[in-house]
Amino acid sequence: MMGQPVPQRVSPTTQPHRGVEGEAPAALPLEGATRAPPIAEKPVTKHPPEVPMTPGSTGLVLEEPLLCELSRPGRQSCSLPHANDVPTRAPEATLPAALLRQTPAALPEISEADLVRHFTRLSSWNYCKDAGFFPLGSCTMKHNPRTNEAVAALPGFAYLHPYQDSGTAQGALALIAALEEALKAISGMEAISTCPAAGSHGELTGLMVIRAYLQDRGDPRSRVLIPDSAHGTNPASAAICGYRVTQIPSGPDGLLEPSTVANAMSDDVAAIMVTNPNTLGIFERNIREICDIVHARGGLVYCDGANLNALMGIAQIGEMGVDVMHFNLHKTFTTPHGGGGPGAGPIGVRQPLAPYLPIPRVVKTAAGYGWDASAPKSIGRIKAFYGNFGMLVRAYTYIREMGAPGLRHASEYAVLNANYIRAQLTASYHLPYATPALHECVLTDKWQQPGGVKTLDIAKRLMDYGFHPPTIYFPLLVAGAMMIEPTETESKESCDQFIAAMRAIAKEAQHTPATLTEAPHHTFRRRLDEVMAARSPILTWHQLKG
Amino acid sequence: MEIDKECKFTKEHEWIRLEDNVVTVGITDYAQTQLGDVVFVELPDEGDTVTKGESLGVVESVKAVSDIFAPVSGEIIAANSPLKDQPEQVNADCYGEGWMVRIEMSNIDELEDLMSPDDYATFVAAEHG
């Protein structure tokens, strides 16, 4: 019963689980053109939070029906001109009869004003980084600097077409080459591919490079070692790459021990995947020795670089003996995250693995920059075109704006903020590992459990205080984990507000536990029935009506 | 926490019940409590062969997705397919209706690696701290 940890996010975004959510307002009766959206369940006055709330936890929140419910026959949101210069052709003349509709598609018919309000109201239900503190551990939810956006919007970047001649896109290719150099300098790796489109995609690409390298060496291997403190995507990437996964336990202080690796290591192990610092936020200080053990038996070392935010400008992953790593540009290098993505997960390798990197690769010749897609040993293309180029522009902008000292400062503040929160909360919450940690801290609900309060309840109650909850129930090796990562973005004031909320919640857990087990009280929707939503999801308009 | 005295146990919190050379496999009360409400169970097909220590299926709850590890090697002779529609049986009756698979053992000696009910109780107490 050990397996893939699923970092869980308790979303404060209030998805209307109609037909699932018992307390949600009933479907709205909509008559004619009068659509008076009632204000949702008014944020309740009972259980007022004990510390001042940040903006966004109460206020004017507008209910909004589905597009299908808004539809009225004959309404439309735009009017198209008659195309006098294009000949009209009957559908029967162009499509087989079997494909022709007998009745028009029942698409929603909505005016432009209603349509704009629909999506604007829905967007107001969302909670975002630009609205407040977002301490999702392991996700590194940093501020996205506006300078990045201004640079990415420059016409020479924004209006590029992937098929245009590279002779007319020299600046863009030069940027990719310069970003590769910057990532080399930051990581100590020797060759970079910016093609992968996400961290997990980087993991898979990195493992494919390892597999190609080992096969070429005439030494195909079948297993990958993964510590129990790794990211959940690691075993998934290894399995998709065709490897069997062997999970290895971390020691009592949350560190991977060289003796454990030595015992698990054998001649059929292709690689070990290490996250450093690991998901407890703890720096794997035996990493050099672990690399030596794995290398001595012919294996390679993959480092999940998702937590590079703690090391950037301070320590180089390449110096630790790592052979392959990925970078999460949407974490460490401030490009947008989640729905604001797409992501970007470049990988870095040591020189012997460089011939196997995906194509195309940027090369510089006497004639300027160009693409090299000829590499005979390459694993091939792993994504259409050249990666998520807009993200490369943003990351490069951030790196140049910060400079080496700035990047180091960012890591130092990320570590300082996490340790400040940890130190301020260890009187209120159980700290499972006392080992010094870097950029995130993991607490548990152990002291609250006897009163019937669980991590989930604490996370839900945090929403009443105006905060996005931290990652919960991850890492899996910690029962009832709450994984808090403030990042360097947060000021002392916002850390203090969060600390005050967490302390107030710990007190509530002692004195009025029902306040927590029934939370959230102030959100647009109250507690959702996540079990029913997973077991009997209603995913379509027809299911909802039926 | 309930521990079925008729069963033997793994460190990964599976239970087995032995009849001749066939074992019935499920997850323990401790495991289902830790997982919380189970929302999905994926089981192997009858006729599949499984190797001790390797994943034979998956249990998904709102908290986590966990592998079910084969406590012994052998052939799957039955899978509790009703769990696909009623995963809540794993929570409601983990030692009964919530069973997962029956395995015809290929190596009876593997039973020696499993824990007795008392040993499992001690193991869980130590792990839970």
Topology:
The complex is a heterodimer of chains A (546) and B (129).
Chain A: H1 67-70, H2 91-94, H3 112-124, H4 146-152, H5 155-158, H6 170-187, E1 191-193, H7 199-216, E2 223-227, H8 233-240, E3 244-248, H9 258-264, E4 269-275, H10 287-296, E5 300-305, E6 324-327, E7 347-349, E8 361-365, E9 368-372, H11 389-425, E10 441-444, H12 455-464, E11 471-472, E12 481-484, H13 492-511, H14 513-517, H15 530-535, H16 541-545
Parallel strand pairs in A: 2-3, 2-4, 4-5, 5-6
Antiparallel strand pairs in A: 1-7, 6-7, 8-9, 10-12, 11-12
Helix pairs in contact in A: 4-11, 6-11, 7-8, 11-13
Chain B: E1 8-9, E2 14-19, E3 22-27, H1 29-35, E4 38-42, E5 49-50, E6 55-61, E7 65-69, E8 74-79, H2 89-92, E9 101-105, H3 117-128
Antiparallel strand pairs in B: 1-2, 2-3, 3-9, 4-6, 5-8, 6-7, 8-9
Q: What can you tell me about this protein's structure?
A:
The complex is a heterodimer of chains A (546) and B (129). Chain A is built from 16 helices and 12 strands. Chain A is an alpha/beta fold and 546 residues long. Among the domains of chain A are: 146-401, Type I PLP-dependent aspartate aminotransferase-like (Major domain) (Aspartate Aminotransferase, domain 2, 3-Layer(aba) Sandwich), CATH 3.40.640; 409-534, Aspartate Aminotransferase, domain 1. A 7-stranded mixed β-sheet of chain A has the order 1-7-6-5-4-2-3, sandwiched between helices. A 3-stranded antiparallel β-sheet of chain A has the order 10-12-11, covered by helices on one side. In chain A, strands 8-9 form a two-stranded antiparallel ribbon. In chain A, a hairpin with an 8-residue loop joins β11 (471-472) and β12. The longest helix of chain A has 37 residues, at 389-425. Chain A starts with 66 loop residues before the first helix and ends with a helix. Mean pLDDT of chain A is 89; it is low at 1-45 and 54-58. Chain B is α+β, with helices and mostly antiparallel strands. Helix content of chain B is 18%, strand content 34%. Chain B has helices at residues 29-35, 89-92, 117-128, and strands at 8-9, 14-19, 22-27, 38-42, 49-50, 55-61, 65-69, 74-79, 101-105. In chain B, a hairpin with a 4-residue loop joins β1 (8-9) and β2 (14-19). The chains are: A alpha/beta (546), B alpha+beta (129). At the A-B interface, α15 of A face α1, β6 and β7 of B.
